[in-house]
Design goal:
Layout lengths: L2 H6 L9 H11 L6 H10 L4 E5 L2 E6 L2 E6 L5 E6 L2
InterPro entries: DUF3781
Protein name: Conjugal transfer protein
Pfam family, one: DUF3781
């Protein structure tokens, strides 16, 4: 099973902290969107590329990169790459 499939099979476990929500909203310029649902939508996209590095997964779609801890399924951060 590839890394994206592992993450997709555990999307129900993906979450973040209150500080994570604020960081994601700020970094992605989100206003009223649910930060976790926004990130899950990106991860689910057929063009999203998920790679494993150390203890984290990195989900990349376009200029957006989401960092998810592989053990806890916590979204650490998300940001736009330029």
């Amino acid at each position: 099973m590839n890394e994206k499939d592992v993450l997709l099979n555990n999307l129900d476990r993906v979450h973040t902290t209150e500080m994570g929500i604020e960081r994601i909203k700020k970094n992605l310029s989100l206003k009223n969107e649910d930060a976790v649902e926004y990130c899950i939508k990106i991860i689910k996209d057929k063009d999203c590329i998920v790679t494993k590095k150390g203890k984290n997964w990195y989900a990349k779609l376009g200029d957006c990169e989401i960092t998810v801890n592989r053990n806890s399924y916590t979204i650490i951060t998300a940001h736009k790459k330029s």
